[in-house]
Amino acid sequence: MTASLLLQARGLTRRFTVARKTLFEHRTFTTALDDADIDVREGSAVGVIGESGSGKSTLVRLLLGLDTPTAGWVAFDGRRVDATARARSLHWLRRETGIVFQDPYASLDPRMSVGRIVGEPLWALGLSGSGTPGSDGRRERVREVLADVGLDAEMVTRYPHEFSGGQRQRIALARAIVHRPRLLVGDEPLSALDVTVRAQILQVLARLRERDGLSIVMVSHDIGVVQNLCDEVVVMKDGRIIEEGPTEKVLLEPQVAYTRRLLASIPVIDPDA
After folding, report:
1. How far is the C-alpha of 255 from the C-alpha of 242, rounded, in Å?
2. For a 10 Å CB count at each end of the chain, is N or C smaller?
3. C-alpha–C-alpha distance, residues 196 and 166, integer Å
């Protein structure tokens, strides 16, 4: 039985105006994303790969309603995402999604304790520890989710600078899933971590997928990450999706010359190491 469609995007395009050097120059544009289509099914994991500047981060921002497309649309569970709407009117989308960025230290407020950082989405969205409206059980939920990502619940009173890079990324992951989203998006969340820590966090993500039915969109330069976590893969170049399909098929039998060159140039993590 085919899983239901959770996230759908059609014709996504994003152009930016290039600053004019003189008043007499014609206005020009640069295209960061061009006519991209993508589907994410309930409980699946989709990897997005491509060289720097290929449009991966732009795609992620548009999928989450963090930027407005020049053309095209995004729908989550059949509901259109209006990125031009007021922030409060997108609370429904924030409730259903979470994101983890590349640099955990830059994404964590150094003035806030771990407990406040992880619990922030619950307070911001007005949710209780069970994910329903209200304030009951928030602290308990924060401790629970810290344990989920392999951290001691007693760390809630400490601050980001007291942790290693791998621990900080676990804190960022805990914050992204504390409100029980249906979709988790990772924008190069493992690239700054060593191989051992990367493998540990991959295990955490795999466990969350199996236990909670979490859907994942994972942007990564690391083919090993995509190979071990994702069911499907999307290959991007110059703002366009040039190849997509089941992970095993795309990685073992790429149909596009660029994909073959990309796979040949990126080191692969040995899953048995």
Report:
1. 10
2. N
3. 10
What single letter denotes the amino acid at residue 14?
R
**Is residue 240 pLDDT above 80, yes or no?**
yes
| Dist CA 141 CA 75 (whole Å) | 29
Alpha helix (H) residue ranges in the chain: 56-63, 91-96, 104-107, 114-125, 138-148, 165-177, 195-212, 223-229, 247-252, 257-265
Cβ atoms of 46 and 40 within 8 Å: the answer is: yes
| Polymer length in residues for the chain | 273
CA distance 51 to 30: 17
The CA distance from 84 to 69, in Å, is 9
Asked whether the beta carbons of 10 and 72 are under 8 A apart, the reply is yes
What is the value of pTM for the model shown?
0.88
Provide the mean pLDDT of the chain: 88
Q: Tens digits of per-residue pLDDT, 166-217?
A: 888 899 999 999 999 999 999 988 876 778 888 888 888 888 899 989 999 9
Pairing of strands 28-41, 45-49: unpaired
Interatomic CA distance for residues 36 and 177, integer angstroms = 27
Find the angle CA(101)-CA(194)-CA(228) to the nearest 5 degrees. Answer: 75
